[in-house]
Design a protein that fits this description.
Layout lengths: L3 E5 L14 H18 L4 H7 L1 E12 L9 E10 L5 E10 L4 E13 L4 E2 L5 H8 L3 E7 L1
Parallel strand pairs: 3-7
Antiparallel strand pairs: 1-3, 2-5, 3-4, 4-5, 5-6
InterPro entries: 4-hydroxybenzoyl-CoA_TE, HotDog_dom_sf
Pfam families: 4HBT_2
Keywords: Hydrolase
Length: 145
């Protein structure tokens, strides 16, 4: 698998006054896709709750390259771009690509795993998280940090 892909469907409420997808909607689509991917990799909400850990973000950034309109057909491709060997820290990239294979936007998030009882970074990283994130498709320029 080269990436996790999802075709997006835009709603009227995803638009801004300029009739293109509003900036915050991109972040919503990225967040939803990450949760769907974690679920797909076995890190369901039930597992995260029962093992008292979950993902936490330190940075979330979007670079907008081409506007997206309500009727545009967009596929979001999600890959991991950086990761520590113990999977304790990672960066995920979401690319929004249109029908013409043009890159419309890129979201990059930097994150880690949080112990939800201690409210601190999980140490050590839960084994189930290590197994899941190692199965994440990687970018061509993937970097072990």
């Amino acid at each position: 698998m080269t990436s996790f892909s999802k075709e997006l469907s835009f709603r009227w409420s995803d638009l801004d006054p300029n009739f293109h997808v509003r900036h915050s909607a991109y972040y919503d689509f990225g967040a939803q896709h990450r949760i769907e991917i974690l679920e797909n990799l076995g890190l369901t909400m039930k597992v995260l709750r029962s093992q008292n850990f979950g993902p936490i973000l330190f940075r979330e950034e979007c670079v907008f390259r081409k506007e997206i309109l309500l009727s545009d057909k967009i596929v979001m491709q999600t890959k991991i771009s950086k990761m520590r060997p113990d999977a304790s820290r990672w960066s995920i990239v979401h690319e929004f690509i249109n029908d013409d294979d043009k890159l419309c936007a890129v979201i990059t998030v930097d994150g880690a795993w949080m112990d939800t009882k201690l409210r601190k970074i999980a140490d050590p990283t839960p084994e189930i998280a290590i197994d899941a994130i190692r199965n994440f498709p990687k970018t061509n320029d993937f970097l072990e940090i």
